[in-house]
């Protein structure tokens, strides 16, 4: 019974989780490029 309760709680936690949001790295990329460090843009 405890396993079933844990399973239901796990499924509910995943189903009701809020989606993650990331901020664009434009300011960070600009700062790195001012030092001559260039890389892939992820935005």
Explain the overall architecture.
- The chain is an all-alpha fold and 43 residues long.
- It has one domain (1-35).
- 53% of the residues lie in helices and 0% in strands.
- It contains two helices and no strands.
- The longest helix is centred in the first third of the chain and has 14 residues, at 2-15.
- The radius of gyration is 20 Å and the shape is rod-shaped.
- The N and C termini lie far apart (46 Å).
- The mean pLDDT is 85.
Number of strands: 0
* Tally of distinct domains: 1
Stretches where pLDDT falls below 50 for ≥5 residues?
A: none
**Residue share in β-strands:** under 5%
Instruction: Give the number of helices.
Output: 2
Rg of Cα set: 20 Å
Shape: rod-shaped
- Terminal-residue CA separation: 46 Å
Briefly note the structural class of the backbone: mainly alpha
H/E topology pattern? HH
Largest sheet: none
Name the average pLDDT.
Answer: 85
Percent helix? 40-55%
